[in-house]
Design a protein that fits this description.
This protein is α/β, with parallel strands linked by helices and 223 residues long. It is built from 5 helices and 10 strands, in the order βαβββαββββαβαβα. The chain has helices spanning 10-20, 54-68, 144-149, 159-169, 188-218, and strands at residues 3-7, 28-30, 33-40, 43-49, 73-81, 91-99, 112-114, 128-134, 154-156, 173-181.
Length: 223
């Protein structure tokens, strides 16, 4: 089985392709965006793009499981910083995902999915371990206190949905994201600054993640 590498936003995907030096004739289309096969760390991989939002991310994840039979699936991308002490460029590996815009909190509905990364060797990598929160919205200053009370280190749009789909399919999964922006104060001005920070930092974060990827993939235990 190949390893699936899911990259969600268009900004992240556009930064990843030249870094991977993938020939243009290998890039193909599928219902959710682009994909291409590649070999990383001696392992067969499928890189695929889903674009943002939980719906697209979950659908692309299920497609990858059904069509390419990926297992495990690794999410690479950016996130907003939540935990005090973390800053732009810090990399988080999710110990669980929390969908903070989900109002049905019954455990079986996938609001929270706990990660089991025993199959993944991450020793000596420059990462922080902790929960990642997801919602179909940009994180803002007013939600920070609630996310911090749940122990979240970062926040994104898609990881919670991807984790839920993988769990339902009994597919191993991991989420690694770098902090691209941190909300400092409420208001429209801060929202514009966050967007600018995201756009200016995304390429460097994807480069850092892709530089780590061979070591990550080499440490994946065979199922």
């Amino acid at each position: 089985m190949p390893i699936g590498i899911q990259i969600c936003s268009g900004t992240e995907w556009r930064a990843a392709k030249p870094r991977l030096a993938v020939p243009s004739d290998l890039v193909q289309l599928y219902p959710y965006g682009e994909f291409f096969p590649s070999t990383v760390g001696g392992r067969d991989c499928v890189f695929f793009h889903s674009r943002r939002t939980k719906t697209r991310a979950a659908g692309a994840c299920q497609f990858a499981i059904d069509r390419w039979q990926v297992n495990p699936l690794i999410v690479l991308g950016t996130c907003g910083g939540v935990a005090p002490g973390l800053g732009v460029g810090d990399i988080i590996v999710a110990t669980k995902t929390i969908q903070y815009d989900c109002h049905d909190r019954r455990p079986e509905m996938g609001h929270t999915v706990v990660a089991d990364t025993a199959w993944l060797t991450l020793a000596d990598l420059p990462i922080h371990r902790g929960p990642i929160a997801s919602a179909d919205r940009d994180m803002t200053f007013d939600i920070l206190a609630d996310l911090r009370s749940q122990g979240a280190l970062g926040a994104d749009w898609e990881s919670g949905a991807i984790a839920a789909v993988c769990a339902l399919n009994r597919v191993r999964w991991a989420v690694l994201r770098g902090i691209s922006d941190v909300p400092l104060e409420p208001g429209a001005h801060d929202a514009r600054r966050q967007e600018a920070d995201y756009k200016s930092n995304a390429a460097a974060i994807m480069a850092s993640l892709l530089d780590l990827l061979p070591r990550i993939v080499e440490g994946v235990a065979l199922s």
